[in-house]
Amino acid sequence: MKIFCVTWAPFSRRMDEIAAELKAERWDYCLLFKMKVLAPFRYLIMAFRTLIELFKRKPDVIIAQNPPVFLPITCWVYCLLAGCTLIVDHHCIWSEKTIRYPLLSRVIRGLEGFIVKRAELNTSPHDVWTEKLIELSHKKAKVITVIDYVEELPMKKVSRERFCRTDYLVVYPGGTGPYERPDVAIEAVKELEGVTLVITGKREFLKRVLPHESDRIVFSGFLPDEEYFGLL
């Protein structure tokens, strides 16, 4: 059986792990990454290029990552034509985590519900997304949780003094999703003596909490993998 794992991203560690576990072929395809203004044209070109790749490789099973939802939809079209199986790995629910415009969010949510019901199997990294995917399909889809597993982390020793001089250090991976609340972590640390909170991630995405920056509330910016894992 030929399994093909595909993403529309520069890289995907999660999909790398899945492919390694299943001894599957891997393909990441990315065009004009983060150029939002060109998104309609970009996704159209990527869809055609992906169909060409699928017809060339002729997989029996496709594991496609959402987001963006247009990738699993493209793979579903191929599956209809070629009679193969589609599994969708939902890194997150795109319509909830990153789409900020209400009308666009509703459209994307509709497309996600469409593909969740038509995939042979859906996977997500934790139970919260799993439950929401089941809701999206009106309980008509098969969804399971597949937790990320990392056997070995690339890391190097990181000096704590670069970030804090207190007895304890807490790391909060910065994010902008509705379920990610760095403000709650900040308020908690303010009540604790001898604790420094380091919030990682690009500062441009954390503007709403940047005013809290202090000696014990540190915004590190985006860290390379080795430094990030070393800090943890």
Q: If you consult CATH, what is the topology of the largest domain?
A: Rossmann fold
* Assigned CATH class of the largest domain: Alpha Beta
- The beta-strand count equals 9
| Number of structurally distinct domains | 2
Strand line-up of the largest beta sheet: 2-1-3-4-5-6
Q: How far apart are the first and last residues' alpha carbons, in Å? A: 39 Å
Q: What share of the residues lie within helices? A: 25-40%
Shape: elongated
Mean pLDDT: 84
The helix/strand class is alpha/beta
Report the CATH superfamily of the largest domain. Glycogen Phosphorylase B
Q: What Rg, in angstroms, do the CA atoms define?
A: 20 Å
Extract low-pLDDT stretches.
Answer: none
Strand content: 15-25%
Sheet having the most strands:
6 strands, parallel
CATH architecture of the largest domain: 3-Layer(aba) Sandwich
- The number of helical segments is 8
Give, in order, the helices and strands.
EHEHEHEHHEHEEHEEH
Sum up the structure in keywords.
232 residues, alpha/beta, Rossmann fold, 2 domains, 6-stranded parallel beta sheet, 9 strands, elongated
Describe this entry's structure for a reader.
With 232 residues, the chain is an alpha/beta fold. It folds into two domains: 3-145, Rossmann fold (3-Layer(aba) Sandwich), CATH 3.40.50.2000; 160-231. Helix content is 38%, strand content 19%. It contains eight helices and nine strands. The protein has helices at 13-22, 39-57, 70-82, 94-97, 102-118, 127-136, 182-190, 225-231, and strands at 3-7, 25-28, 61-66, 85-90, 121-124, 143-145, 168-173, 195-200, 217-221. The protein has a six-stranded parallel β-sheet with strand order 2-1-3-4-5-6, with helices on both faces. The chain has a three-stranded parallel β-sheet with strand order 7-8-9, with helices on one face. Helix 2 (39-57) runs parallel beside helix 3. The longest helix is centred in the N-terminal third of the chain and has 19 residues, at 39-57. The radius of gyration is 20 Å and the shape is elongated. The model has no long low-confidence stretch (mean pLDDT 84).
